[in-house]
Amino acid sequence: MPSTLADQIEDLLPQTQCTKCGYPACRPYAVAIADGLARYNQCPPGGQEGVARLANLLGKPVIALNLTHGHERARLVAIIEEAYCIGCTLCIQACPVDAILGAAKQMHTVLPELCTGCDLCVAPCPVDCISMVNVSAEKTGWDAWTETQAAQARKHYESRQTRLVREQQENEERLLAKAREKLRAVSSEPALSAEQAAEKERKRQIISAAIERAQQRKRDSETPES
């Protein structure tokens, strides 16, 4: 399938998934640039070199990085002070590339080779035990980040998105199964009076409506985006 302009733009982005451009990930930013809804100088991780690469693709002049989105900087890696970590998992949930290992009420740790330096894990930490450490000295932007690292980050981000969708679908299936079982139980309840019959019907309608909503969410999730 021929690549779209958005595809070509995305290929030039550093794939840190940091959201500093104002979009939730690199792909939406690429689409926004292609659609003329965003400028091509909003990616601090790519820095001035990133602006130049996009300008060349788009046939536009090289302009300055928009500093309202952040400054070009060295490559940073998150470090967790494990002695203070309380195992809340908030940083794990925030990491866009699954670069943090751990479980609830257990110590967390960062896989530095996977960390993109997005720093999205810092703010959610309730005990302020995450810091960002410079690992590229004076090198910044694309001088501190390679195409290979970008490809790896993109792969891990897409893998995480696939996993999250799968987990959501599995959870919906579990809830749907429980609701159906509850509906069967309610339907089999004896109704010895008009009041009991009315209450039974009320419960049945509530559960049936919940099942229909769950089925609609499932249908919506299975409908491919145009």
TrEMBL record:
<dbReference type="InterPro" id="IPR010207">
    <property type="entry name" value="Elect_transpt_cplx_RnfB/RsxB"/>
</dbReference>
<keyword id="KW-0411">Iron-sulfur</keyword>
<feature type="region of interest" description="Disordered">
    <location>
        <begin position="184"/>
        <end position="226"/>
    </location>
</feature>
<dbReference type="GO" id="GO:0009055">
    <property type="term" value="F:electron transfer activity"/>
</dbReference>
<keyword id="KW-0408">Iron</keyword>
<feature type="domain" description="4Fe-4S">
    <location>
        <begin position="1"/>
        <end position="60"/>
    </location>
</feature>
<dbReference type="Pfam" id="PF14697">
    <property type="entry name" value="Fer4_21"/>
</dbReference>
<feature type="domain" description="4Fe-4S ferredoxin-type">
    <location>
        <begin position="106"/>
        <end position="135"/>
    </location>
</feature>
<keyword id="KW-0479">Metal-binding</keyword>
<feature type="domain" description="4Fe-4S ferredoxin-type">
    <location>
        <begin position="76"/>
        <end position="105"/>
    </location>
</feature>
<feature type="compositionally biased region" description="Basic and acidic residues">
    <location>
        <begin position="214"/>
        <end position="226"/>
    </location>
</feature>
<keyword id="KW-0249">Electron transport</keyword>
<dbReference type="GO" id="GO:0051539">
    <property type="term" value="F:4 iron, 4 sulfur cluster binding"/>
</dbReference>
<protein>
    <submittedName>
        <fullName>Electron transport complex subunit RsxB</fullName>
    </submittedName>
</protein>
<dbReference type="GO" id="GO:0046872">
    <property type="term" value="F:metal ion binding"/>
</dbReference>
<dbReference type="InterPro" id="IPR017896">
    <property type="entry name" value="4Fe4S_Fe-S-bd"/>
</dbReference>
<keyword id="KW-1278">Translocase</keyword>
<keyword id="KW-0472">Membrane</keyword>
<dbReference type="Pfam" id="PF04060">
    <property type="entry name" value="FeS"/>
</dbReference>
<keyword id="KW-0813">Transport</keyword>
<dbReference type="InterPro" id="IPR007202">
    <property type="entry name" value="4Fe-4S_dom"/>
</dbReference>
<keyword id="KW-0677">Repeat</keyword>
<keyword id="KW-1003">Cell membrane</keyword>
<keyword id="KW-0997">Cell inner membrane</keyword>
<dbReference type="InterPro" id="IPR050294">
    <property type="entry name" value="RnfB_subfamily"/>
</dbReference>
<keyword id="KW-0004">4Fe-4S</keyword>
<dbReference type="InterPro" id="IPR017900">
    <property type="entry name" value="4Fe4S_Fe_S_CS"/>
</dbReference>
